[in-house]
Design brief:
The protein is α/β, with parallel strands linked by helices. It is built from 11 helices and 9 strands. It has a single domain, classed as Rossmann fold, CATH 3.40.50.150. It is globular and about 60 Å long. It binds S-adenosylmethionine.
Length: about 280
């Protein structure tokens, strides 16, 4: 019996007796999610064809980005991201940055990575700022801490999910995020959180992967959305933001080709539409 079993295993066809001793197949990985992200969709007459792909779960993303942390800065440098972020932010925050303002600006950088967006903002702001950075990856946060300290930027960093921000309502002058929302099956869950923690009148900045050949590569590798200007603006408006704009990148090899920024403001009158009011608008 023992010899038969060994022979069967060697040929890859275990007999029934041996099969019954095999471990049961594990059920689905509990870290995985069954939420999906659209890859492409087309109407043919009255037919709608779409392909969707499973999104990475938060657990998976934390792990994947932990592995990327050591090479992330070199990658951003090769792609000219610092220059691209600075040029973009200089344009977007000009009106929020009076040279005479003395109070430090309170800034949220959600999915801070190694701190590239915050460092860029530090370069272009006249006022001092205090950055709250959150991320799923501890190793990314370690790098951010080192970079922001070296740049003399006041900061607090925390491991947290962008969909459950550990902050009070209405505390930030600027809430920003770069290349994070496209990872989420429904980016509006995160945008609503960012709007909640913005002060009335505060500025939201969201950079995302846009539709392009490079965007398609990013989507293939990272299971992300590729966002059109109309789609991105709709997401921001759905979350109650006003004065919503799509802003192209002017600098940076990769950002110009694959990224797009969206901005909007939390209304001063503080009315954020609920699902009930949104239905009628
Ligand atoms: C593409 S990197 C961008 C990092 C940085 N914003 C930049 O522009 O270089 C995405 C970052 O978002 C983080 N991230 C992804 N999903 C997140 C989530 N749900 N909540 C918080 N951070 C998240 C990842 O760990 C990673 O550090």
């Amino acid at each position: 019996m023992h010899i038969i079993r060994r022979l069967a295993y060697a040929t890859g066809t275990p007999p029934a007796a041996a099969r019954s001793e095999q471990k049961p197949k594990p059920t689905a990985d509990p870290r995985q999610t069954d939420e999906t992200i659209p890859v492409c969709a087309h109407w043919f007459g009255s037919w709608h064809f779409s392909v969707r792909r499973r999104a990475f779960s938060s657990n998976e993303l934390g792990g994947v980005y932990d592995n990327e942390a050591d090479v992330w800065d070199a990658r951003l440098e090769r792609l000219g991201v610092a220059d691209a972020y600075q040029t973009l932010l200089r344009k977007l925050v000009a009106g929020d940055d009076p040279a005479t303002g003395s109070r430090p600006m309170r800034v949220l950088d959600a999915g801070v990575g190694t701190g590239a967006l915050s460092l860029a903002l530090g370069h272009v702001l006249h006022r001092p700022m205090r950055v709250a950075g959150i991320d799923l990856s501890d190793r990314m946060l370690d790098q951010t801490g080192r970079h922001l300290s070296r740049a003399g930027i006041d900061h607090v960093l925390q491991r947290a999910n962008i969909t459950e921000l550990p902050f009070e309502d209405g505390v930030f002058d600027i809430a920003m995020t770069a290349h994070v929302l496209e990872h989420l099956p429904d980016p509006r869950a995160a945008l609503r959180e960012m709007v909640r923690v913005l002060k009335p009148g505060g500025l939201l900045i969201a950079c995302m992967t846009r539709r392009s050949s490079l965007g398609a590569y990013v989507q293939w590798k990272w299971h992300t959305h590729q966002v059109s200007p109309a789609q991105g603006k709709k997401w921001l408006r759905d979350c109650g933001l006003r004065a919503v704009r799509a802003v192209p990148f002017e600098k940076g090899t990769a950002c110009r080709k694959m990224s797009i920024a969206f901005t909007g403001r939390r209304p001063i009158d503080n009315v954020i539409p609920t699902n009930e009011t949104r239905k009628w608008n």
